[in-house]
Amino acid sequence: MTFVALLTKELRLRLRRERTIWVLISYLLVMTLLGFLFISRNNPSNGYTVSTLGYGLYTLLVFVQLSLIMFITPAFTTTSINGEKERQTFDLLLCSRLSAFELVAGKLVAGLANAFLLIAASIPLFSLVFFFGGVGPAQVLQTTLVFIVTAIVVGTFGLFCSTLLKRPPVSTAIAYMFCIMWVITPWLLSFLLQLNVPFNNNAQATLIFIGNPILAMISTFTLGPGSPLGSYSFYGTSLAPWITFIIINLLLTIVLLLLSVWLVKPNPIGRLSRLMEKRRPKDKVVATT
Amino acid sequence: MIKIQHIYKSYRKVDALKGLSLQIPQGSIYGLIGPNGAGKTTLIRILAALLTPTRGEVWFDGEEVVRQPALIQRKVGYMPDFFGVYPDLTAVEYLEFYAGIHGIPRKKQASTVNDLLELVDLSSRRDANVETLSRGMKQRLCLARALVHDPEILLLDEPASGLDPRARVELRELMRTLQGMGKTIIISSHILLELAEMCTDIAIIQGGQLVVSGDVEHVTRRIGGGRQIEIRVLERVPETTALLKEIEGINNVTSENGDLLQAEFTGDDRALHSVLARLITEGIPVVSFAPRSSGGRLEEVFMSITEGSSPS
């Protein structure tokens, strides 16, 4: 009940902002424009078949959408909690019956709803790919899952920054830094450690790239036999990189969410030390006679 | 009855409250007076479960509540010294949101919100954007928000600050209405005249400690040594002065502008009536006989107590 009230208010406020509609329009315009440029430059006269054109368009749209999700989603959550503090409405939320979990979950769901709105709005553009052919429904489903998990991780990290840091500009900057590091660190490390990329039979590279969204997205493409992308093996079960990406990042999301729930209420360190004191076994009292 | 017992609150090296104890009668309008940094807001935030005291106990109707924030949240309505509004919501949506997060069932929300808007006289602005409301209206809306779950205790931190005289009068009337509804109201302020006119009881706090508490007259008498009376006479000023000096309980008789006499008086209203009766009996042509408002007196008391304390 209290969660629904918070979510309703958040969605009302977000959807009433002029910025929301402009973000949506800009998002679709960028995607449409790039798609249009791709089709106009790569036509059958340049040696493209209709299906390769569809495949190429799909690849382009997928990576543009992935970049846009990572670029836009943090903006929906990085000021969720510290923004309330700055607006001086946070105390009023604490005085209500909202639990810490409801507060964090309400803010996260509202922020992610905006990101999912962008993903949903791009569906008509993606459906254009089916007109050309070359891409199967299973691949689209896998890609959509990677989009959704990417939005969830980035959004949750933004929310975590918002609970941890007092100032909205700082939390926004840190969240964007995380996004950049999340994407480029594995590639940078593989370059610095001079790992042999592609990754087949390279245990170190496999581990470094396990949660990387770019690699996960590449793995959703049908790369054919001899693909440089191997699969992860857990106790004899072989998992494609996009599956391990989803598992690892959902675990990370749960950890970030729990940390946010702990940090959102006042005096987290004091509460932790009180909890530790309660858990500490009491000294045994030795009876003296 | 709210009992606050030996409350301490420290922020790193600063002691905001140093063993403060108070008893707040049920149904009273209780004023917390003190200069900036005295610990008023800290005390109010402890009572709202927004802060945990370093030491000490708070009792609501015989139940210790410091470690029971859920109980406090149910019993207490809190209005901070800032508005804290969401500018893109209408007044109705704003109150419905707070009704929702206080667990008011959806079916009851509309009637609760309508009643509250009527109480704070904002029914005509129910669909107005909160941002477009005047400061006084926002203040009344925030008061309605604090009342959304029908709390027994209202905590108002500097509610009159920044309001114009009309808005202050309206707020005062609202306080009286709420008192009539059986609410216990705790108000912090440094606008002493406002508190003196509004409150049934006051506590003066300085440096995190209680200086004095009790009903307004009691506090004024106890610290100021009595109340001031002003007497205007048509003539016979020297005789009146001499007569007043003879009467028990009257001290420091002075005259201003010739016909206006001022005196300090210690005693209750019955004794005050006797003073007037004596003057009339003696044939003194009294034009006006007025005990000065305790608010003005209280301000003097407050200034003398807090002399030398610098605002934070």
Task: Write the SSE topology.
The complex is a heterodimer of chains A (289) and B (312).
Chain A: H1 2-16, H2 18-41, H3 50-77, H4 80-86, H5 90-94, H6 100-121, H7 123-132, H8 137-164, H9 168-192, H10 203-208, H11 213-219, E1 232-234, E2 237-239, H12 241-264, H13 268-279
Antiparallel strand pairs in A: 1-2
Helix pairs in contact in A: 1-6, 2-3, 2-6, 3-6, 3-7, 3-8, 3-9, 4-8, 6-8, 6-12, 8-9, 8-12, 11-12
Chain B: E1 2-11, E2 14-24, E3 29-33, H1 40-47, E4 55-60, E5 63-64, H2 69-75, E6 76-79, H3 91-101, H4 106-119, H5 135-146, E7 153-157, H6 165-180, E8 184-189, H7 192-198, E9 201-206, E10 209-215, H8 216-224, E11 227-233, H9 237-246, E12 250-256, E13 260-265, H10 269-281, E14 286-291, H11 294-305
Parallel strand pairs in B: 3-8, 3-9, 6-7, 7-8
Antiparallel strand pairs in B: 1-2, 1-4, 4-5, 9-10, 11-13, 11-14, 12-13
Helix pairs in contact in B: 3-4, 7-11, 8-11
In short:
The complex is a heterodimer of chains A (289) and B (312). By secondary structure, chain A is an all-alpha fold.
Commentary on this structure:
The complex is a heterodimer of chains A (289) and B (312). By secondary structure, chain A is an all-alpha fold. In chain A, 74% of the residues lie in helices and 2% in strands. Chain A has 13 helices and 2 strands; from the N terminus they run αααααααααααββαα. A two-stranded antiparallel ribbon of chain A has the order 1-2. In chain A, α3 packs antiparallel against α6 and α8 runs parallel beside α12. Chain A is globular, with a radius of gyration of 23 Å. The termini of chain A are far apart. Chain B is α/β, with parallel strands linked by helices. Helix content of chain B is 38%, strand content 28%. In chain B, the strands form 3 sheets. In chain B, strands 6-7-8-3-9-10 form a 6-stranded mixed sheet, sandwiched between helices. In chain B, a hairpin with a 2-residue loop joins β4 and β5. The two termini of chain B are 31 Å apart. The model of chain B has no long low-confidence stretch (mean pLDDT 85). Chains A and B meet through α1 and α5 of A and α3 of B.
